[in-house]
Fold this sequence. Notes:
Number of helices: 12
Oligomer: single chain
CATH superfamily of the largest domain: Zn peptidases
Strand content: 15-25%
CATH architecture of the largest domain: 3-Layer(aba) Sandwich
Structural class: alpha/beta
Shape: elongated
Amino acid sequence: MTFEEMWRDLAPIGRSGSSGGYFRQPWDSAEEELRAWFAEQAAARGLTLQTDAMGNQVAWWRPEPVPGRVEILGVLTGSHLDSVLDGGAYDGPLGVVSALAAIDLLRERGVEPGRAVGVGVFREEEGSRFGLACLGSRLASGSVAWSDVEGLRDRNGVALGDVTAAPDAGAGGVLAEVGCFVELHVEQGRALVDRDAPVGLASGIWPHGRYRFDFAGRADHAGTTRMEDRADPMLTYAMTALAANKQARLSGQRATFGRLEVAPGSTNAVPSRVSAWLDARADSDASLEALVAAIEKQASERADRDGTTMELTAESVSGAVEFSKDLTDRIRAHSAWPVLPTQAGHDAGILAAAGHPSAMLFVRNPTGVSHSPDEHAEMADCIAGVEALADALSELV
């Protein structure tokens, strides 16, 4: 199947009829359909499918055995198939479809790989269900222990350990044969638009984290309680959100409150508790620490004035990642693609931090919008991405 045909097959799966966005959460029907589709595509190409207990998948194109040849670890490409809530079509699936199309292109060119080539699909990359981004690649690489995450719960109270088992990490796992990883992804910004380039390479990933702010106050009547008599945690949260915006703007970093839970959640009651999740990103580990500390300080000071309390919990923090300069230079040697940093987290960052040399290719996003139904890439740029990925794999195999 061509890239266009594969993309057309995926387009309706998990798509909302109202917003046009995608709901492809891990272990739901849409994501299961996508994983079955991937298995069918692997079988149609004669690839050997490997799946771990969590559902991470790798489809291997292995070279013909040659007597006396020393086997070396393989090259992995691919991405993920899950989405954020009401997300875009390209974040993740573009890398998977492009990887399959790149293998087709290599075969059309008559390339005979000297090492295995794998197409990987990592599960729960977005962290949209269990709250920890890149969960599949973290477990597969041994970056987190199963005992630390099996109790994570989704919005309905279902634990991770109730829907899946622990995957093997290291020997026997889906990464056991992996020597390096090259991930293709839609760009989540406008750097390639500004550079008038359809494809780019990543130099590294900004450090980033997810932090839960728990504000507690006193529930009360919305009509009879005087404003000066309230201990309203919503006010403390509101000031904290404004403080996060100001601190990020002043320092040139990123801070976003995108999720909120309020108890008891009544229109006519002052809330007793507000929990809010901050996504913070910065250009260095020190800058990230300073940004979160500044927001925490202002939140704590406001809580004192409001008669509320504030507690901060770092749910996940990922340090700065530098991609393999050797891999990036080898890939770029055959092109003039620009090299740029990214502020988004990716499975490639997890594998790089775990010791697997990694590189990333980006495909131009004309609006820069991502994690939204408006996320987009032109078909011509997608095809350019397939060709760039095929060139990269050809260089590495």
